[in-house]
Amino acid sequence: MRKLMILTLFFATALTNTTIAEDLNTLSAEEIMKRVDDRYTGDTSLSEAQLILIDKRDRKRIRNLKLFGIEKDDVEKSMIFFMSPSDVKGTGYMSFDWENESREDDSWLYLPALQKIQRVAGSEESGFFMGSDFSYADINGIDYEDFNYELINSSEIVDGHDCWVIKSIPKNEDVIKKTGYLESTSWVRKDIFFSVKSIINVKKGKRVKYFAAKDIQNIQGIWTAMTLQMVSTHKGKKEHSSVLKITDRVYNTDVDESMFDTQVMQRGI
């Protein structure tokens, strides 16, 4: 998949051996981000997680989720089910990320209260996902080819790890409309080619979002961020934040492709 997952549904990158004879300082911003984009995230994945919504008074609402993913040669499919609490139980979200760039990606949202499947249009991807600070574009993934890249700093330490600092700039207005983002600055760990934090300038409302990937673990040979945080600010003040906390993750396990279907979304699991 040629996707640059800002959060990726499954938030992982391949275990990368940088001890080989290579001068990392010779890599361009495009080459670095291409390696981030080319990471192996497993043929399948099965996860349990909590989505924690936090308002400006630090009041929390917790949603319990199950996530499924499968990657084929031509498409990457993902499904999210909301298991609790009762006001969101049964909600489902499914997305298909097609390898063929000429084919528009597909995504659907099922809301039990309406008992109806809603297709999420490309123009709606900049909207908030289920009341969180993550957008549909964050969840679905952002195309690597849609951005120009600039190396801002060749070395900056984040949580004890040396990182590149890279700015991503949308190539055209269509990309800005789809993502809702004017530009972003990311810190990429040199040892594993993993984006550990980003500062994102949002077009609507001139807001700024802060993303952080934390508790990074090597699970079955795949680097995985077990906690992802997105904080929305306006004029320097925090408005809202969201934390996606992975409580269990298994890669390359048995995931039935037949479950990625709108009828399954309505039935639930």
What does this entry look like structurally?
- The protein is mostly beta strands and 269 residues long.
- 36% of the residues are buried.
- Strands 2, 3, 4, 5, 6, 7, 8, 10, 11, 12, 13, 14, 15 and 16 form a 14-stranded antiparallel β-sheet that branches. A two-stranded antiparallel sheet has the order 1-9.
- It starts with a strand and ends with a helix.
- Mean pLDDT is 90; it is low at 4-21.
- It has 4 helices and 16 strands.
Using brief descriptors, characterize the structure shown.
269 residues, mainly beta, 14-stranded antiparallel β-sheet, two-stranded antiparallel ribbon, globular
Give the arrangement of secondary structure elements:
Layout lengths: L2 E2 L7 E3 L14 H9 L6 E12 L4 E12 L3 E10 L7 E7 L7 E6 L4 E4 L16 H5 L1 E2 L3 E12 L2 E10 L2 H7 L1 E9 L4 E9 L5 E12 L2 E13 L2 E15 L10 H6 L2
Antiparallel strand pairs: 1-9, 2-15, 3-4, 3-16, 4-5, 5-6, 6-7, 7-8, 10-11, 11-12, 12-13, 13-14, 14-15, 15-16
SSE topology string: EEHEEEEEEHEEEHEEEEEH
Q: Total number of helical segments?
A: 4
Which segments are poorly predicted (pLDDT under 50) over 5 or more consecutive residues? Answer: 4-21
How far the N terminus sits from the C terminus, by CA atoms, comes to 27 Å
What class do helices, strands and sheet pairing give? mainly beta
Percent helix range? 10-25%
β-strand amount: over 45%
Biggest sheet layout: 14 strands, antiparallel
**Count of β-strands:** 16
Shape: globular
Mean pLDDT: 90
